[in-house]
Design a protein that fits this description.
The protein is built from 12 helices and 10 strands. The protein is of the alpha/beta class and 354 residues long. The strands form 2 sheets. An 8-stranded mixed beta sheet has the order 3-4-6-5-7-8-9-10, with helices on both faces. A two-stranded antiparallel sheet has the order 1-2.
Length: 354
């Protein structure tokens, strides 16, 4: 059974061509995503006490990449890979990977320069360089084709991977992907544009290092969540610990600035590397998930993304911000399970329920 509902049972907001929230004109009609129903997919309640999954280092594309693995709850599961956004880490998928563990063998990586990973080889942090790390890991591990999930910059990376290596991708989930949008924004993070200014970016990050790790962690949560007050104390403590750890890494500032520049640079790419052309080349079944209250990547981009990718569906979540997998992991999981069912022609090779 599939349904299209929010976490409290209300219909999810429908954003489509011609509406006030649509942004650029869509290339084709927007199809709405469905959610896997609880009768067929018994997703447990979110365990907010769940600690980050353990991990290990892998040498990928010349970098020491830290990878967390969520143990599957059954023998017959399918491989998934989770890719975080700018300034994020593999811990952004702790709850989502847990909820999906009856169906997915989930791996989540720290991109080079982020989380516990070492710096990128040669200091290369472009979207293409990050995509090569993802591809390199999938090739080394032999886990493809996978269910690929990317949030924010991780979504931009996932678009590059899915368009250039369709053989490695079973399905694609994009959570508020960082797609080209250079329009001026009201609200959002006023700091980000300053980070790309030569000479100014490092100074701005050094200035941020003067505030306490808790203040910095809370500022990021305020930016990414529609309801930061709902973040459990243990998750806040994990974010504070991450800020503290990264202040001891000599490459952290450079990775942040260079990755942001690489992301913006990808917006200006021409030809086959242009993001919208890459989206049009994706063949994997896709679900696009967007928080209606996203402060970082405007929800008005959502219909165009869903309409540009040939086999995509759209789910816009009211009262959710930039990181739906963190703020509403249960609904995000149900959207991914519905996508999986669609890719498997409605069959569940791992069985039904728990």
């Amino acid at each position: 059974m599939l349904m299209n509902r929010t976490r409290d049972g209300r219909p999810s907001r429908r954003v489509g061509p011609g509406g006030a929230s649509c942004g650029p004109r869509a290339a084709r009609p927007v199809r709405l995503a469905e959610l896997a129903g609880p009768a067929d997919f018994a997703i447990p309640a979110v365990d907010q006490t769940r600690k980050p999954w353990p991990g290990e280092y892998h040498r990928v594309a010349g970098a020491d990449v830290f990878l967390r693995k969520t143990p599957p709850r059954r023998k017959t599961v399918e491989p998934a890979l989770y890719v975080h956004g700018l300034g994020g880490a593999s811990t952004n998928f702790t709850d989502l990977a847990d909820l999906l563990s009856p169906w997915f063998d989930g791996h989540a990586l720290d991109l080079p320069g982020f989380g516990k990973s070492g710096p990128a080889a040669g200091g290369h942090y472009s979207i293409g360089a990050h995509a090569r790390v993802v591809i390199g890991y999938l090739e080394q591990s032999g886990r493809g084709p996978v269910h690929l999930v990317g949030n924010s910059m991780g979504g931009a990376i996932a678009i590059r991977v899915a368009s250039t290596r369709p053989d490695l991708i079973r399905t694609l989930t994009l959570v508020s992907p960082a797609v080209p949008d250079l329009r001026p924004r009201v609200g959002g993070d006023a700091l980000l544009p300053l980070l790309v200014v030569p000479g100014l970016g490092p100074a701005m990050l050094r200035r941020l290092d003067r505030v306490t790790p808790e203040q910095r962690a809370r500022a990021v949560i305020d930016l990414c969540f529609a309801h930061p007050e709902r973040v459990p104390d243990n998750r806040l403590a994990e974010a504070v610990a991450d800020v503290t750890d990264r202040r001891g890494m000599s490459w952290a500032h450079g990775a942040m600035i260079s990755s942001l520049r690489g992301l913006i640079g990808s917006y200006l790419s021409a030809g086959g590397r242009a993001p919208w052309r890459q989206m049009a080349a994706i063949v994997a079944p896709t679900v696009v998930i967007w928080g209606e209250l996203d402060q970082l990547v405007d929800v008005s981009n959502a219909p165009r993304v869903a309409a540009t990718i040939p086999d995509a569906r759209l789910l816009v979540l009211p009262d959710v911000g930039h990181t739906a997998q963190l703020e509403d992991p249960a609904v995000t999981a149900r959207a991914i399970l519905a996508l999986r069912a669609r890719a498997n022609d409605g069959r569940d090779p791992a069985g039904v329920g728990l």
